[in-house]
Structures are given as structure tokens and as C-alpha cells.
Design a protein that fits this description.
The protein has a single domain, classed as 4-Layer Sandwich (Purple Acid Phosphatase, chain A, domain 2). It contains eight helices and twelve strands. The chain starts with a strand and ends with a helix.
Amino acid sequence: MRIGIFSDTHANLEALRAALDVLERQHVDKIVCLGDTVGYGASPNECCDLVRQRAAFTILGNHDAAVSGRMDYSYYYDAAKQALDLHAAMLTPENMAWIKALPYEVREEEVSFCHGSPINIKEFDYIFSPEQAAGCLDDWEALAGVTFIGHSHLCKAFALEPESVFEVLTTKFLLRPNMKYIISVGSVGQPRDYDNRACCTVYDSLERTFEFLRVGYDIDAAADKIFSHRELERNFGNRLFFGV
């Protein structure tokens, strides 16, 4: 089965449409969203509607948990809190109910889908370095063969053995049967790896191959929507141009 996987749309409708178009051309059998459909951007309802329509299932992200009252976000910095407050007020009852019901994790055979680290899953811990991935080794037996995560907005892949971890430094690779993997799928709507293109990914469970895909989108349109909102920090639009 070919699975299209993406995360961290953050209310960027233009980027989401571009990523979904790419996945359609990849002839995936189903699409999975790893969370954070809302936060930062200007189109929370439109993105929720589209993800609900296209994804086979969606995982709860930390921004989703915040807007739906499922976590405390009082410690977030002011601009992020203000965006979350705005989105909570903007969401339709249907979209709010959908977010409130999202799961922290979905497991299908030897594959796990979650937003942050699979350890202490409700804490949304980051994994974007080998040292952080190594923190999962104590739970080696409980780890899925492949764990797909978002949250960091970075494209990172780590191969784990029972006592060691190394980073996979390529955009497409074959998963070895004697290893477990934690793969961070990047961000659709707010990349932070100095590549401003939207990111989505494809996992082929039969061939055991994985690939990062990047696609350009109308950043001007997405940023202009943010600039037009007095309650959204302008930097949320500016950073889209730089991929940070």
C-alpha cells in the first residue's frame, strides 16, 4: 500500500492544496495527516474541511489540542497564543468537534502514526536529532517497526538498532528489516529547514520505501491572508518566504 503522509499544515490552505495535488499524482492508496491543521495561518476552517475530506485519518497535534481545550497552552509565546485563541473562535462547530475527537496515535500492523515522540505521547516531545531519537531505545520492544511523526517541521529520518541510532541522510530510501525507524515528515504549511516549499511524503508498505517530496505553492497568497488579519503576527507570514 502506498500511503501519503503529511503534517503541520497550520492553516495554510495554499500549501495544503499543493501537497494534496502532489500526493494525488503519486497514486497513493490513502492519505494520513499527523496533526496541527490549525495554528499560525489564516485558513483554519478551510484546511480542516479539506483534511477531513481527503485524509483517511488524522492525528491530534499540539496546536489542535490547544484550540480544542485538550491541553494548557498558557506557556506558549504571546503571538502563538493569540493565533490559537483566534482559531478557537473561528472554527465551525463541526470542525471543533472533529478536532476534539482526534486520537493521539493510530497503529496499523507495524506502523505507528503520532504527532510527536511516541514515548509519553500526550507530552508532544520533539524528535529532530539522533540523541532525541535515542531516548526511545529504552522502549525498544514497544516501538513500532516504523513511527511517523511531525511536530518539528523538519525532514528527519532515524534508523534505530537496540543500542544505537543513526540519521538517514537521503530523501528516498529503503527501510531495512532488522531496524526500526522514526521518521519526521516535515511541514506542509510552515517548513523550518530553510526550504520554503511544502513538504509531504510517501511510504510504500510493500516495497518498504520512503520518500520526502517538496512542492512550491503560492506563498504570496498565503502570506497576504496572514497580513490582513490584525490578530495574527506578521512574522507568521514573513517566515513562509524563508522556510524558517
